[in-house]
């Protein structure tokens, strides 16, 4: 009396394994489009799951990025987009050295340094 749990997921993005630099074997990847229903066959690997398209007559399973792996990639991309280099100003700046000295106010240190 074994019960087999089937897992289905709806794709929230398009995926093309031939454009993915992280996939271990592009030929083993399963391309899908946003809205496709994927049947997850194996979640044994934390990074790459085995899945097949539910609507496809081809029973071939392929590699798809795991939910955790895809979320990590998106988070890294978002942090790159949000990063903005500091604006260079024409004002004269005292720079890092002065701010570092001021943050270490110690009477004994100031007496011996100056």
UniProtKB/TrEMBL annotation:
Q: Does the keyword DNA damage apply?
A: no
Segments of skewed composition (Basic residues): 94-114
Task: Please provide the record's keywords in A-Z order.
Answer: SH3 domain
| Source organism superkingdom | Eukaryota
Q: What is this protein called?
A: SH3 domain-containing protein
Q: Which positions fall inside the SH3 domain?
A: 4-74
UniProt xrefs under Gene3D superfamilies: SH3 Domains (2.30.30.40)
Q: Which Pfam families does this chain map to? A: SH3_2
Matches recorded under SUPFAM superfamilies: SH3-domain
Annotated segments matching region Disordered: 92-114
